[in-house]
Amino acid sequence: MIPLREISLIAPLIALCVGPGEGGRKSLVGGLPMRPLPNGQTSATFDPQAFLAVVGYGQSVMVYNDRQPIFVQGDPADAVFYIRKGRIKLTVVSRQGKEAVVAILNSGQFFGEGCLVAQTYRMASATAMDQCSIARLEKQVVIEKLREEPTFSALFISYLLGRNLRMESDLVDQLFNSSEKRLARLLLLLANFAKEGKPEPIIANISQETLAEMIGTTRSRVSSFMNKFRRLGFIDYSNDGLNVHSSLLNVVLYD
């Protein structure tokens, strides 16, 4: 089950990418025929990664340092961002001044896409967690590419569906698992566990306070669990950060 507010965001975004078509060669977006690009290429040769690295009309690539804000809650929402390198966190501050970490995003992920579905102001703040290279795409540029380029649409839809699945898993985790299991699962996710070529992943230093905010518990409990995981050999620390071992799965899979 996904919160209705999140469904109201995701559904229109996918509808923007997929629609009924009318004759000719179809794209994934609105069924529009694929149109030639200015350099004579067609959508079939469009490279989304090359497009996301371009600096030009409505597009820019910026480098942000650790803890540097990319946008702040309440800022005008007029662009979509793509993480080319690095890691960012999304945070929300309540009217009472309490801050919560909504998500930590890695390279290859979009954020700020709420502007595509009538979100006029940012609902969260985005902050770099290390040195980041971020592509900024103005709203109209993204809408045009979603309508014209099936490969870009496929990349964007893949991101939306992946986030949808992650939200479902996060909700189930929050409802039914203990805080210890939630922490173990979060560490495995932050370490990109089980991805090819990374059997013993390392994650950058993230404060215990941030981890506590993400799983809905106190810093003292996170500290207690981290000490336990270290004592049992599930994690260890090095100069590069935190090593997360496959044995941590035992906490998630077994009571």
Give the helices and strands, then pairings:
Blueprint: H1 4-17, H2 48-52, E1 59-64, E2 69-71, E3 79-85, E4 87-93, E5 99-106, E6 110-111, E7 125-128, E8 132-138, H3 139-148, H4 150-176, H5 179-190, E9 202-203, H6 208-215, H7 219-231, E10 235-238, E11 241-244, H8 249-253
Antiparallel strand pairs: 1-8, 2-7, 3-6, 3-8, 4-5, 4-7, 9-11, 10-11
Helix pairs in contact: 1-4, 3-4, 5-6, 6-7
Describe this protein's structure.
The chain has 255 residues and is of the alpha+beta class. The chain is built from 8 helices and 11 strands. It has helices at 4-17, 48-52, 139-148, 150-176, 179-190, 208-215, 219-231, 249-253; strands spanning 59-64, 69-71, 79-85, 87-93, 99-106, 110-111, 125-128, 132-138, 202-203, 235-238, 241-244. The strands form 3 sheets. The protein has a 4-stranded antiparallel beta sheet. Strands 2-7-4-5 form a 4-stranded antiparallel beta sheet. It starts with a helix and ends with a helix. The relative contact order is 0.14. Mean pLDDT is 82; it is low at 1-8 and 20-42.
Q: What's the shape?
A: globular
Largest sheet: 4 strands, antiparallel
**Sequence stretches where pLDDT stays below 50 over 5 or more residues:** 1-8, 20-42
Report the sheet-strand fraction.
Answer: 15-25%
Assign the structural class, choosing from mainly alpha, mainly beta, alpha/beta, alpha+beta, or little secondary structure.
alpha+beta
- Give the terminus-to-terminus CA distance: 24 Å
Tell me roughly what share of residues is in helical segments.
Answer: 25-40%
Count of individual helical segments: 8
